[in-house]
Amino acid sequence: MTMLGLLLLALAGSPDADLDRLATWMSGRFSSAAQAQADGEYRDVRLTVTPIWSERSDGRWLYVEQALGTSLDQPYRQRVYRVVRGDGGTLESGVFLLPDPAAFVGAGADPSRFATLSREHLLPRDGCTVVLRPDGPDAFVGSTSGRDCPSELRGAAYATSEVRVTAEAMRSWDRGFDAEGRQVWGAEKGPYVFLRVDP
Fold first, then answer.
1. Rounded CA separation 113/96 (Å)
2. Which domain holds residue 70?
C-alpha cells in the first residue's frame, strides 16, 4: 500500500474523515506536463501544496505555490488555503494572500518557515472561497459562487474557479471575465489537469 493509502486508512476513523481526505488529496506535488504535451493550448505548470500550521484546530491550512515548469523558482501564484467544514455537508477552501509572497518562495520544502507568520497577517480573498461536495467515494467537486470573486487581472471584473479533486489528480479551471461576462483570461477548452507526481 502507498504512503497516501496508509494515511487515508489512518484518517478513516477521524471525527471528520471527509475533511481530512480532501486536505490530504490536495496536498503534494502536481504537474500538468502530460496535458501540455498532448495539447499545445495548455502550459507545463507545476503545483505544490504543503500542509502548514498543523497545530491549529480551526481548519486544515495549506500553502500553495504554482509555477511554470521552466521557472520553478519564480512562482506566479502563491496562496494559503484554509479547508474547513461548511454548511449542509459541504467543505470550504478559503483563499488568502500572503503579505510578502517573495519571502515564502520555496517554503513548501520547509514548512517551518511559516512559524514566523500568523493567521492575522494573511489577507482574505473575500468571495473566492471554493465550496466542495463529495462526488461519490473517490472525488470532491466544487466551485466559487457566481460573480462573487473579484479580479482585476487583464481587464477582468470577476474570476471563477471550478475544481475536481481525487487521490491521483486535481483538475482546476480558473477563468476571468469582464463586466459583460466575456472571458479575458484562463484556459478556454477546459480545466488544467494536474497529475500527482509525488510517491
1. 17
2. 3-196
Q: Give the type of residue at 139.
A: A
The dihedral region occupied by 21, where left means phi > 0, alpha psi between -120 and 50, and beta the remainder, is: alpha
Q: Is the pLDDT of residue 58 over 90?
A: yes
* DSSP run (H or E) holding 6: helix 3-11
* Confidence (pTM): 0.89
Closest CA to 165 of 91, 95, 97, 111: 91
- Over residues 7-51, the pLDDT tens digits come to 444 444 456 899 999 999 999 999 999 999 999 999 999 999 999
Over the stretch 121-176, which tens digit does the pLDDT of each residue have?
999 999 999 999 999 999 999 999 999 999 999 999 999 999 999 999 999 999 99
Locate cell 504512503: which residue? 3
Q: Which residues contact 134 (CB under 8 A, 6 or more apart)?
A: 18, 89, 140
Rounded to an integer, what distance in angstroms lies between the CA atom of residue 125 and that of residue 4? 30
What CATH number has the domain bearing residue 89? 2.40.128.590
Total structural domains within the chain: 1
